[in-house]
Amino acid sequence: SKTYKIAVIPGDGIGKEVMPEALRALSAVCQRFDILLEMTHIDWASCDYYTQHGTMMPDDWKTRLADMDAILFGAVGWPDSVPDHISLWGSLLQFRREFDQYINLRPVRLFEGVPCPLAGRKAGDIDFLVVRENTEGEYTNLGGRIFAGTEREVVIQESVFTRLGTDRVLKYAFELAKQRSRKHLTLATKSNGIAISMPWWDERADEVATGYPDVQLDKQHIDILSARFVLQPDRFDVVVASNLFGDILSDLGPACTGTIGLAPSANLNPEGRFPSLFEPVHGSAPDIYGRNIANPVAMIWSAALMLKFLGETAAHDALLHAIETVLVQGPRTPDLGGQASTTDMGVAIAQLI
Ligand code: NAD
Ligand code: IPM
Ligand code: MN
């Protein structure tokens, strides 16, 4: 049997409620497929840790995590006790950057058994991948404030797009599109208004496209692209976007499939020089924390993606199949119109393995 070293970081809020369900599902599937996961449970990278230590993580966090095969992550953020930019720039955003997880892969799927908020859509009509640039772009700390607190106050925050960073996410998206049956790639752009960086993204995409003659490239401005997520979601296959555009699209997409409680993500360093990180798209949901009603599927599906990227495809498929079955049969959490608890749903998924 193969052994993998996994760092388990529940984080804050419902991260602490959905993580046990991912571990339950992993334990079932790893037993069935004879996989050994050597888990390291981590209580830092959380706002509780910050409250106690005045920092989100120990100084040597990078060496502690660097030789892991993967990181399984819940959610971070507890804005009542720690400002979000402190907690997120002190944890998740450091992981993405320092471990060069430059791809954020976020599947969007309408499942059988899940009521769709869009009229006339059935399972299978929505099935696409958002490929989000994950290390640069709009997420920089370059800039500053001057004349703070006065009428002359000026605030500047730069966006930084590098050729390396842009080309590699475009290539990854083209490769993905090439492997899919529809071979269609949408580029989120805004080259009418954001007149320096976005026309350049278009140019980079055109150049990368020459290596993929069988992939059809469709550039859409982010505003109408968002509208089409709602009106014509069947039009999308792979969607590639800058960091911020991809962030927004990856909540909007899942909302169109019923609930963001289903949406998983894989923060990838595809070359494997550093560990990749797997986490739900959603956050710590302070509004529902403590009631055991969070949907655990996003977390469990993220754990399945982890298995897939470790090369354990059969285990991934079995886990996804169990998720699909429970979405049809129930039990279902309230965001899916049911009354089940996080635990009920997690147990049902694990039992199906
Ligand atoms: P959120 O994703 O935590 O919650 C948005 C809404 O979706 C809430 O109404 C919540 O109850 C609901 N929701 C989220 N996940 C759900 C689930 N699994 N089941 C059912 N309902 C679910 O976004 P927010 O409210 O903007 O952020 C809350 C905190 O989480 C903030 O601190 C924010 O910075 C942080 N955050 C962290 C991550 C992350 O760690 N990756 C992602 C997004 C937000
Ligand atoms: C996400 C989250 C993060 C992001 C926040 C918490 C910094 O919204 O993973 O989508 O913006 O990337
Ligand atoms: Mn987000």
For the record, the CATH architecture of the largest domain stands as 3-Layer(aba) Sandwich
User: Quick one: CATH class of the largest domain?
Assistant: Alpha Beta
Give the count of helical stretches: 12
The average pLDDT is 98
* CATH topology descriptor of the largest domain: Isopropylmalate Dehydrogenase
Strand content bin: 15-25%
In the predicted model, the low-confidence regions spanning at least 5 consecutive residues are: none
Q: Which structural class should the secondary elements be placed in?
A: alpha/beta
Indicate the percent of residues in helices.
Answer: 25-40%
Overview of the molecule:
The protein is of the alpha/beta class. The protein contains 12 helices and 12 strands. The chain has helices at 15-33, 47-53, 61-66, 84-89, 92-98, 163-179, 197-209, 222-231, 243-256, 297-309, 313-329, 342-352; strands spanning 2-11, 35-41, 70-75, 103-109, 127-133, 143-146, 154-157, 184-189, 216-221, 238-241, 264-268, 276-280. Helix 1 crosses helix 11 (313-329) and helix 10 runs antiparallel to helix 11. The protein is globular. Bound molecules: nicotinamide-adenine-dinucleotide, 3-isopropylmalic acid and manganese (II) ion. 3-isopropylmalic acid is lined by residues 88, 93, 247, 281, 283.
